[in-house]
Amino acid sequence: MSRVRKGHNYERVETRFSRETIENLKPKTVFNDKWVILKNVGARGGAHCYDVCDQKVSEFGVLYVEIGDDGMSSLANQVEFSHKQYSLGNSHRFTSVLDCGLINNHVYFMVLQNRPGPTLKALLEAAPSAQLAPTTAAFIAIDLISTAELLASTGYVLRNFDAKQWKFDVKSRMFYLADITDVTVISDKRYCPVTKAYLDSAETMDLHWNSDDLTYAPISFIVKGPAHRMSELDMIESLICVIYELSRIKLPWKNSPNLQKTLELKEEFVISLPEHVEKFETEVEGWLDTALRNVIEYLKLAKEIQERLEKLPVRDGAWCPNGARAGALLSAVKYREILEDFQKVVNCGRPIWSQHWRDVKLDWDKEIVHTPKSLRTIRNLEKREAAREVAQELDRLHGSRAHYSIMMEHADAEIGLNTVLIQKYLDGAPGEADLEDMPEEVAVIRKRTRKAKKTKKSEENDVKLKEKQMYVYVAK
Fold first, then answer.
1. HSE (side-chain half, CA atoms, 13 Å) at 316
2. Do 134 and 59 reside in the same domain of the chain?
3. What pairs with residue 44 in β-bridges?
4. C-alpha distances in Å from residue 317, one per residue of 168, 189, 291, 302
């Protein structure tokens, strides 16, 4: 950059990144003077990912690095999505952004928080059987459906299901969407205003199912192909297939080479679930089967409601009376009823107050006998976590104190300034713009003020004289 001309920060070339260097960042190197590269974890979408930690080894995350084409990058949309969910209080179902930025005006990066816990794929591989117990399948279904509800209520949709994208938080015992690469804007009339500009841009937007595997793909994607636009009902349909496979081992159309046969089997599946030939060994298996069939009925009811409401003549051609900001309150999917059905399966008929349903034993849980050494390690870890929380709270209090002290200083300065201005106004101080514009009125006001001051002073002198005379009289 020229020394004569001053440009913005984007014109300062920090490191000459290329696609080859981004793909092969070496471990133990520092990225952006802050994040230490630990391990290459492969590519996700158009970004290359690395496990990183800060130089104090206090925060761990996943670094996404991508070179934007023509000033466009998917990371910008992912950062916006994460900030939106954090501001709405939904960050427990997703990941939080630790850092993000732009280097050399074309290299986008972001760091997502890495919470301790395994992926859903690792847990499924650790399970003793490919067919999960009804309790475990319902446990996973609750978190999947809850995340889908939050996505749809904020105007987003999940275009793919990959078990590696979902992680299990060992502290809260909750599954959350750790990788938001396949999250995109929902293409539904309730969430996007149907205008000419939107229709023109929708032709170039990538909103269809984002996988070549048709195992969990919705029926509309098989029919329309790349012209498919993912909707809320399509997302629920794909999640039903996932939950069914977790509880029944295999889907009827899995690994089918014939596309037409796959489409027919999917259409039959959405209309009614295949009948369970074998007898249920326990009551919980029957409850799970009933919950799955209820989801199918709720999905069919939601489709009927949406088809009926889309024909109503309301503004912008959309059936939502509140415009583009329609949330889950206007969703045709009965999320509460679906979650309650699966929660009854997890509780196994026990009262809700008897046990917290998150503490139920899952298929991959094992009983571990702690040794004195392991107990000591756990206690030290708990003490370290408590000390870190105390330090964070102390920093927050120090910041609040500094903030309020500055606010008090500003308030005192403003009060003092206002006091001076009021006194100057009462004293009739010259030099003010509004007074200079009205010389005659100002002269009259000042004359009256001087007369009032003289009258007040003479009255005070008379009072003092009378008091003095009274004192002299009393003394005599």
1. 19
2. no
3. 47
4. 41, 8, 35, 19
